[in-house]
Amino acid sequence: MVDVSRQYLRTAPETDSAVQAVLAGGRYILGENVKAFEGEMAAYLGCSHAVGVGSGTDALLLILKALGIGPGDEVVTTAFTFFATAEVIATLGATPVFADIDPGTFNIDPAATASRVTPATRAIIAVHLFGQPAQMEDLATIAASAGVPLIEDCAQAAGAEYMGRKAGALARASAFSFFPTKNLACAGDGGMVCTDDHELAARVRMLANHGQSEQYLHACIGMNSRLDEVQAALLRVRLRNLDRWNDERRGIAVRYDRVFGAAAPFVAPGSKHVYHQYTLRTPARDTLSRKLEMDDVASRVYYPVPLHLQPCFASLGYLPGDLPECERAADEVLSLPIFPGMTDEEIERVCAAAGA
Questions:
Q1: Would you place residue 354 in the very low, low, confident or very high pLDDT band (cuts 50, 70, 90)?
Q2: CA 237 from chain center: how many Å?
Q3: Over 70: is that where the pLDDT of 142 sits?
Q4: d(CA 316, CA 238)
Q5: How many Å apart are CA 232 and CA 325, to the nearest integer?
């Protein structure tokens, strides 16, 4: 699905130099590279604050924790996404409330979101799935009407844009993952919280460092979630290449689009997709997957079981049929290989293996 080593090899001299400087310097935690990367990421997105943390999951958790969300609270989000989005809600003792998706974009549907808001709602999390931003204007209106913060899960959307603005600077706060397969990736786990809210940024930073307001003085119960210097040094190099690499992804998508036609991903007006995944939609998904496998071409289903039907959420009382678009997508989606550095031969091989 993705060859992460190619990304390293394309910037190896610059990356090696940056990482070796960190190792030789001996400052591995909360050093100058983390500070510099935070500033560079904030400038890239056009937001005021960026806080490096240990993972994308931690970034979501820290935002909710900083907002004071806990037992008795509800957070509305999509049921068609990676588990972490709902996991962090439940981890804090709050209740994930699942909304259905727009069948075209696979993102949370604004009308469905509005229908899920109750007096207990304390936040809405929009996931920019597969690299395409959700309908943020409508979602922002819903959140404002309910008097709750809108949060972006940008784990799959580094560099994406909505109405000319970068994903990650469209809501009260946003969470990024730098997992090795992401568009902006490190060589392990890493994440970031971005926001224009000074107080929220300060609280996230404190919570991520054991709740310390200053060294050995703990203002609250926090956790250990810090982006380390080696990863920050690597990410600084990759951020400078992110737009070029996303352009490559879009170029591959254009070639796939010509072949797959109506099954190809829909891109909403005003969205600049970054194709973290190139996700087809076809009722013949399983047949296509087997066809690709026979020719040793990778494919993957993201995600085969919607969150509302996961065993761990059985107590919430959702039943098959409750979120029909999520369930239909789970039965019909198939993602194909797409990553910077794919060769023409590899792209053609994917198309040929699909029999298109």
A1: confident
A2: 20
A3: yes
A4: 41
A5: 39
